[in-house]
Design a protein that fits this description.
Chain B: Its cofactor is FAD. The complex is a heterodimer. By secondary structure, chain A is mostly helical. Chain A has helices at 29-33, 77-89, 100-111, 122-134, 140-146; strands spanning 14-19, 22-27. Chain B is an alpha/beta fold. In chain B, the strands form seven sheets. In chain B, strands 1, 2, 5, 6, 7, 8, 20 and 21 form an eight-stranded mixed β-sheet that branches. The longest helix of chain B has 24 residues, at 2-25. Chain B starts with a helix and ends in a 7-residue tail after the last helix. The chains are: A mainly alpha, B alpha/beta. At the A-B interface, strand 1, strand 2, helix 1, helix 2 and helix 3 of A face helix 1, helix 4, helix 11, helix 13 and strand 26 of B. Strand 2 of chain A pairs parallel with strand 26 of chain B.
């Protein structure tokens, strides 16, 4: 149905009318460029119910972060957690340089499951691990972009 | 130094595992022998000592017998199915997989057994009615692979077979794992004894159990009455085998009729409609509502969407109620209540999902009379050691009230939450799940919350100016992440349509709902949001619902969404 539209609506920034119980608003770019008066409630960063990013408020690693994909739960999950934890808490000048053994163990495990951990992506995974640490609570979208297989 | 730390780490998971078993199988609240002793002393003053002692002895016997089950047996001597698992997940779909992953992430070395009636390993459903139909690969029904929004290909299976531990090895493998027992149905649940029985008589006891049995497609009474000849020409679409069968049928018949105007029916109609143009297949879609997505979108938008579905090559027949179906020659004859007749070769029924709650009886679990499904609390718990997630869970949403949700992302969110709570988190349902749909190259939307067309709505759309054109056919829709909280990279449809009919360059004022945001209200509070052809805005939508604030002018709220931005 064609809704009733004013002959002068071209000049209006906002056109608004009701169709039964439903309101329809057409708003121009100019109208929406003015600041919104809608108020949002301030978020509590320590809210225990909220989904957490990769690093929890207390500094621990959130192994259940969707951004990790299957890394912490697959057959090499323990090796991954070990290597990643070591890296996370490493205070060496070259961060993680004291974790070579853990990373080697992880790599050895992953080599046993080539269709879970494609070999060419391995360096990407390591880079991704270090990138994740530097990120603030990650937006799932960004994480997804970087996530390799599993 | 580091080596010994590593070694300690490898041993810890197994030790933790065994002590957890004692804790959860022992006296409620007990955590090892010493606290149980205190319990004995305390209760004996009330004269209940004898009862406690007897219970303890039983538990100790159970512990000892379980311990002997755990002692590494030679591989040849291992039973095919373990008699006990710490984490038992009934159902092998999205919610179960999400829970398994969550449990494994949080409980080092956890041993998780999934028992699935489906012969397939856990897989994701959305591509079965979307991406798989648009694949260029002629072998797609075998590979079940599709291209994601980022160009990368992936399988519908969450993980390849090598991810899983063989079922018989589950109690013994060093760091635990996830095992899937396929093609087996749990038919009986003893909640007091914490034991389930399978269709083949096998019994498995558990410490914690998740029911994620999902649902089964509903059928129309008219079709059920119709007899075998009609049933043979019917698809109730849900699983991989239904996709394979329908794909084959779509190449063989001249006419397919989809009954149902919701998500699944409309997506399948559009997918088949595309094939219609290239292969001369007639695609009809009929449903009782006034337009596609009539129960979800406000009427003006539902009507607009219906036109779009028609442009995808579908003969959409709204306001159609099926009276009877019969075989006529080699074809089907559908008679509608208003007298119209539809002749077709094959029917796809997409008329809803019946939650699988058969276990409720033996388990003594409550079934919700309003929404169906197992009734659980805000933490998805039905009883002490039993959680329910996914399509089968009727749960309490702190913000939106009691509900049951049949979407993929909800299965992921609730499965993950159940897994967290099965490993001690005690968190309520809080992170709102979302859902999405694409109906051809011009209509893509994401939604969150209570998106019910019976609620009053306020839709704010970008006002067309002379410069605006409708979405270009070559532009990727769904470029945003469709399911933020999922466990695997999820696909969004890649629109490649080369041959759709061109849209008018300048949409007529007031009639083009090209892009915008629709708010669903309960009083002045936004309880649901549809992001109409705009993407990457789900976080702000989620925030508004979470806040639960009253808003007087929703145009002001709409400003937060930047609907005019490309």
């Amino acid at each position: 149905m064609t809704p009733p539209v004013s002959a002068f609506s071209e000049l209006l920034l906002v056109v608004s009318y009701m169709v039964g119980k439903d309101r329809i608003i057409f708003a121009t770019k100019e109208d929406h460029e003015t600041p919104s008066s809608a108020e949002l409630v301030a978020d509590d960063p320590d809210d225990p119910y909220e989904e957490q990013g990769l690093i929890l408020p207390n500094g621990d690693i959130n192994w259940n972060c969707p951004c990790l994909g299957g890394m912490a739960s697959g057959p090499c999950g323990e090796q991954f957690k070990s290597a990643f934890s070591c890296f996370h808490y490493s205070t060496e000048e070259i961060k993680g340089s004291d974790c070579v053994d853990q990373f080697r163990a992880m790599q050895e495990c992953m080599q046993k499951y080539p269709d879970l951990y494609p070999q060419e992506d391995e360096n990407e995974e390591k880079e991704k691990s270090s990138k994740d640490l530097e990120a603030t609570p990650m937006e799932a979208s960004a994480a997804k972009e970087e996530k390799g297989s599993s | 130094r580091q080596k010994s730390n590593l070694l300690q780490r490898w041993n810890v998971p197994i030790k933790l595992q065994m002590s957890r078993q004692v804790a959860s199988s022992g006296v409620p609240g007990g955590r090892g022998d010493s606290s149980v002793f205190v319990l004995i002393v305390g209760l004996s003053t009330l004269g209940a000592g004898a009862y406690v002692y007897r219970t303890l002895k039983e538990n100790k016997e159970r512990f000892t017998s379980r311990l002997s089950n755990l002692s590494p047996a030679a591989p040849g001597a291992r039973p095919e199915v373990p008699s006990h698992v710490p984490f038992l997940l009934i159902g092998g779909g999205t919610a179960a997989f999400a829970a398994a992953r969550s449990i494994r992430a949080r409980d080092p070395g956890a041993r998780v057994l999934i028992v699935s009636e489906d012969p397939a390993l856990p897989y994701m459903r959305p591509p079965l009615s979307k991406e798989l139909w648009f694949s260029d690969d002629p072998n797609v029904t075998e590979t079940l692979r599709f291209k994601q929004w980022n160009g990368k290909e992936r399988s519908i299976y969450f993980q390849p077979p090598s991810f899983y531990v063989p079922v018989r090895d589950l109690p013994f493998v060093e760091n635990g794992g996830v095992a899937v027992l396929c093609g087996k149905k749990v038919v009986h649940m003893d909640v007091r004894g914490n034991i389930v029985k399978l269709s083949d008589g096998t019994q498995i006891s558990y410490d914690k159990c998740l029911i994620a049995t999902g649902g089964s497609p509903r059928n129309l009474p008219a079709i059920e009455r119709a007899g075998k000849d009609v049933q043979q020409r019917l698809t109730l679409f849900r699983k991989i085998e239904d996709f394979k069968s329908l794909e084959k049928i779509s190449r063989e018949v001249k006419s397919i009729t989809i009954i149902g105007g919701g998500f699944l029916g409309s997506e399948l109609a559009c997918a088949l409609g595309r094939r219609a143009r290239t292969r001369g297949l007639e695609v009809i879609q009929l449903f009782p509502e006034n337009g596609n997505m009539g129960k979800v979108l406000p009427e003006y938008l539902s009507n607009w969407t219906t036109e779009k579905v028609r442009r995808e090559g579908v003969n959409v027949m709204p306001n159609a109620v099926v009276k009877s179906v019969s075989v006529c020659g080699n074809r089907l004859m559908i008679k509608l209540k208003d007298g119209r007749k539809v002749e077709t070769d094959h029917i796809v029924a997409a008329v809803g999902l019946e939650p699988n709650v058969e276990l409720a009886k033996s388990a003594g679990l409550e079934v919700d009379s309003d929404f169906g499904g197992f009734r659980v609390n805000a933490e998805l718990q039905a009883r002490s050691n039993i959680w329910v997630a996914g399509d089968a869970a009727c749960f309490y949403d702190i913000k939106l009230g009691r509900r049951r949700v049949e979407h993929h992302d909800h299965a992921v969110v609730s499965g993950r939450l159940a897994g967290e709570n099965m490993t001690g988190a005690a968190k309520p349902y809080w992170h709102q799940s979302m859902f999405w749909s694409d109906l051809g190259p011009n209509v893509g939307y994401e939604a969150i919350g209570l998106v019910d067309s019976s609620l009053p709505t306020v839709g704010v759309f970008a006002k067309a100016t002379a410069k605006d054109t409708p979405k270009s056919a070559t532009e990727q829709s769904g470029t945003g992440i469709r399911s933020e909280s999922e466990t695997e990279a999820e696909a969004s449809e890649v629109h490649i349509s080369p041959s759709f009919s061109p849209m008018p360059q300048v949409p007529k004022q007031g009639e083009d709902y090209g892009k915008g945001v629709i708010f669903y209200l309960r009083d002045k509070v936004v309880v649901g949001i549809v992001l109409w052809n705009i993407f990457n805005r789900m976080p702000i939508a989620r925030k508004i619902i979470k806040d639960g604030e009253e808003h007087d002018d929703l145009n002001e709220v709409a400003k937060l969404f930047n609907i005019h931005e490309e």
